[in-house]
Design a protein that fits this description.
- The chain is mainly beta.
- It has a single domain, classed as Porin.
- 11% of the residues lie in helices and 68% in strands.
- It has an eight-stranded antiparallel β-barrel. A two-stranded antiparallel ribbon has the order 8-9.
C-alpha cells in the first residue's frame, strides 16, 4: 500500500513538471529570395510545445507548428515551365510545418517577468504552390529546421504555475526547389503556458 501511494505521488509530481505551451504566431519573410516569392507578413500561424521542467530554469521537449504565407501578384505576362507565355494573376503560397526537439532556459525563474532563451532543431514539411490564373502546381518537401528564440514568461494565477508567453524567433529553413530557396523568416508569438495534471 505504501509503495502504491509513493508511486502515485511521484507520478503526480512528475505530471506537474510537464507544461503545454500554445501560441499564436506572425511570420515575416527574411531571406531575399523568399521575399521575392511572398513578401507579405503572415498572420496565419501557430506553434505549440510540450515541455518537461528538468529544474526551475531548464525545460526540454517537443514542438510543432504551422505558418502560412500568401502573395497575389497583379495580372501580367508570365513564362510557363513549358516556355509559353500566359497572361494571368500569379498567386504564391508557402506553408511551413516544423517538428522540433526544443529546449528553453529561464534566466530569472523567481522574477515577476521572466526572460528566457530557447532553441529548437528538427525537420520542416514545406507545402508550396504557384498558380497562374487557374493553372498551377502544388509540391511538398521535407528539410532541416532550426529555431533560436527569446522572450518572456509572465506568471499568472494564484500559484503562478501558468504563464503568459511573449517572444520572437528566427526560423532558419534552408530550402532549394525550383526558383524557391531559403525560407528563413522572423516569427513573433504570444500565448499561454500551463501545467498538465
Amino acid at each position: 500500500m505504501a509503495v502504491t501511494v509513493l508511486l502515485f505521488a511521484g507520478l503526480d509530481a512528475s505530471a506537474q513538471r510537464i507544461k503545454l505551451n500554445i501560441n499564436y504566431g506572425v511570420g515575416i519573410p527574411a531571406s531575399a529570395n523568399f521575399k521575392d516569392y511572398v513578401s507579405n507578413t503572415s498572420f496565419r500561424g501557430w506553434n505549440a510545445n510540450l515541455l518537461y521542467d528538468v529544474n526551475d530554469q531548464l525545460a526540454v521537449g517537443l514542438g510543432i507548428g504551422s505558418q502560412s504565407f500568401y502573395q497575389r501578384y497583379p495580372r501580367a505576362v508570365y513564362k510557363t515551365v513549358e516556355g509559353s507565355d500566359i497572361s494571368a494573376e500569379m498567386t504564391n503560397t508557402v506553408t511551413a510545418m516544423p517538428i522540433m526537439v526544443q529546449g528553453q532556459f529561464n534566466l530569472l525563474p523567481e522574477a515577476t517577468v521572466q526572460p528566457y532563451v530557447g532553441l529548437g532543431v528538427g525537420g520542416n514539411l514545406i507545402l508550396y504552390n504557384q498558380y497562374l490564373g487557374e493553372f498551377g502546381d502544388s509540391r511538398s518537401k521535407f528539410g532541416f529546421a532550426a529555431r533560436p528564440e527569446a522572450g518572456v514568461y509572465i506568471p499568472v494565477g494564484r500559484y503562478k504555475e501558468s504563464s503568459i508567453v511573449i517572444g520572437g524567433a528566427y526560423n532558419y529553413l534552408p530550402f532549394k526547389e525550383d526558383n524557391l530557396k531559403n525560407l528563413n523568416n522572423i516569427g513573433i508569438h504570444a500565448g499561454f503556458k500551463f501545467p498538465l495534471r
